[in-house]
Amino acid sequence: MADIHRHDYADRERLAEALAAGVAAKLAGGLATRGHASLAVSGGSTPRRFFEALSRADLDWGSVMVLLVDERLVPPDHERANAGLVRRHLLQNRAADARFVPYVVDAHTPAECARLSEEAFAQDGHRLDACVLGMGTDGHTASFFPGGDLLTEALDTRSHRKVLPIYAQGAGEPRLTLTLGPILDARFVALHIEGDEKRGVLETALAGTETAEMPVRAVLHQSAAPVHVFWAP
Questions:
Q1: What is the second-level CATH architecture of the domain 4-232?
Q2: Could you give the strand order of the β-sheet that contains 163-166, starting from the edge strand earlier in sequence?
């Protein structure tokens, strides 16, 4: 099992500020040592406060690349597009200068979308400084859904693929996702969860090892670096 660092907060506002401070510190380290930094973030409703707190961080945002851990294969202006969430809540204030690289969602096939997205991400050419994951009540993280058609391939750390299309009945739309390799390779890996239900899901995930049943276990059990779990009621 990875080294799990638990960070519990009394409320979601304090969690957002603490997670933003931790991510900003990692980005600042990348900027100081290499002149650039990169961040992968997740969608859904959970990260909005975190995004807004991070957007105020005093960083050289023009040298920061922001990308998504995963995305739904919907038009960019669709209400369920994770890219829209990032634009509305993170790419504002000081972070308005960040270089956002969204997934390609308008190619002919999901496989082509994945290939073009991987090429776009590869232009940066270095490992992620920070990767912030979410988790569903079904135990998924990124778009690693139980029953996903390419779940085995997405969790194969020996693969050279960094982006794959994936479809699962519980996911709704087909999706694109970073594979497990670049997630585990990030210099800082955080799992951001809120509420008692998800805390219970986390405890169940930590107690077992079957990744097909709860794919979040692939992160919790395989990461060579510590996994920082941020939780609030």
A1: 3-Layer(aba) Sandwich (3.40)
A2: 70-72, 175-178, 163-166
